[in-house]
Amino acid sequence: MFETIILILDSTIRVSTPLLLACLAGLYSERSGVVDIGLEGKMLGAAFGAGAVAYLTASAWLGLLAGIGVSVALGLLHGFASITNRGNQIVSGVAINFLAAGLTALLGQTWFREGGRTPALPEGGRFSEIVWPLAAEIRDIPVLGPIYSELLSGHKILVYAAFLAVPLTWWVLFRSRFGLRLRAVGENPAAVDTAGISVTWLRYRAVILCGVLCGFAGSYLSVAAGSGFGVNMTAGQGFMALAALIFAKWKPFNAMFACLLFGFLDAAGTRLQGVSFPVIGEVPLQVFQALPYVLTVVLLAGFIGKAIPPKASGIPYLKERS
User: Fold this and answer.
1) Which pTM does this prediction carry?
2) Exposed e or buried b for every residue in 21-48, given b needs 16+ CB within 10 A?
3) Which of 9, 26, 12, 20 has its CA nearest to residue 211?
4) CA–CA dist 263, 242 (Å, integer)
5) 262 CB contacts (<8 Å, ≥6 apart)?
6) Cα separation values, 58 from 120, 141, 161, Å
7) Which among 79, 78, 57 is positioned nearest to 67, based on CA atoms?
8) Fewest Cβ atoms closer than 10 Å to its Cβ: which of 26, 66, 101, 187?
């Protein structure tokens, strides 16, 4: 039983990584007052860019840079529509999702002729696991060995980067001058503008940071967790990240625990498929697969208490002229 728990928790960490990165991405954007429904599209674009470049160059690092570049470009497109032109942020985000879904499938089919997928990545095209010192030697020690060797050791570098990004995001938002200004522009952009600080430039920087983190999230799917890009491989994880962000009430550590909860449901469902439970017997696999999405709907229905977004969230800022 203990071994099963360790395996479920290990899988939870892996599954939670892209959700956490996308959730933190949305946190930066929405804290600045820019609603970003396009997390899913940026993740998908990054996954395709990373998978394609990693296949062509046999370099996971170049794939990661390409994924970040694609995601930032989509983020700047969203910023141009919603910040510069003061368009509807929801419509802009949805358009990015449609654009990424169609364009990645079209380019994948045109370039690689494998049904929209990229070919399997060559050696060097994927990130390898990082094994901690003495992991093999202490594996058989009761309790401590499995926790150290299985749960903490053996993850890809992007997994560790995702969880290190949580305290870093907290420090940036709540302890740095940039974070103070970012939160202020999401609450009262007119006051920030009066202080002589550019609301537009602050929001663009938030959108760029959002693109960078979505780039990490999408790249993780294709060059770390997987071995190449697959059509619509994000499978709604960007929307789940948005639900986790609301569940976390726009706070970094709460976001981490929310994403771990989603990841745990997914991992437990995979491990428990085919298991016969007392009284109810064997539960169909589809029930476990649906649990994260059911929880998303339940949370968004308002069962998390009152979640108050930044006051200027979703409202384009128009500078008053004297």
Assistant:
1) 0.91
2) bbbbbbbbbbbbbbbbbbbbbbbbbbbb
3) 26
4) 14
5) 15, 16, 19, 240, 244, 292, 295, 296
6) 11, 38, 22
7) 57
8) 187
Q: What domain range includes position 230?
A: 2-300
Based on its alpha-carbon atoms, the radius of gyration of the chain, rounded to whole angstroms, reads 21
- In total, how many domains does the chain have? 1
Give the residue with greater pLDDT, 235 vs 19: 19
The enclosing H or E element of 276 equals strand 276-277
How many other β-carbons are positioned within 10 Å of the β-carbon of residue 249? 15
Cβ burial, residue 306 (10 Å; 0-12/13-18/19+): exposed
Kindly state the tokens that stand for 49. 């860019």
Note the pLDDT of residue 37: 92
The owner of tokens 């499938």 is 105
Ordered alpha helix ranges (H), 58-176 = 60-79, 89-112, 144-146, 157-175
Kindly indicate the confidence band of residue 278, based on its pLDDT and cuts at 50, 70 and 90: low
- Residue 290's domain is classified under what CATH number? 1.10.3470
Task: Record the tokens describing residue 18, joined without a space.
Answer: 């892209």
Helices 199-220 and 2-31 pack at an angle, to 10 degrees, of 160
Would 279 be classed as within a structural domain?
Answer: yes
- The shares of helix, strand and coil residues in the chain, as percent rounded to the nearest 5, are 70, 0, 30
174-196: per-residue pLDDT in tens?
999 999 999 999 999 988 888 88
pLDDT in tens, 17-76: 999 999 999 999 999 999 999 999 999 999 999 999 999 999 999 999 999 999 999 999
Is 132 in contact with 143 (CB distance < 8 Å)?
Answer: no
Does some domain include residue 282? yes
Domain for residue 67, yes or no?
yes
Quick check: is 317 in a domain?
Answer: no
Look at the chain and count its residues: 322
